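Researcher: Structure prediction, please.
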Amino acid sequence: MAVTVETLEKLERKITLSLPVTAIQAEVDTRLKRLARTVKMDGFRPGKVPMAVVAQRYG
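Model: Predicted structure follows.
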């Protein structure tokens, strides 16, 4: 993770944040798995929606 802070004016700053894709994707997968356990969709029992369907709908 890389962070750069640029001073634009006396009280104004620009922050640039660079994150690896793997870290973001891991967090997205974790949250989708948690969501898949509670989501209710037509045609599926509660908590039994396939991950691919959850990812397509909410990811």
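Model: Strands lie at 2-7, 13-18.
Researcher: Thanks, that helps.
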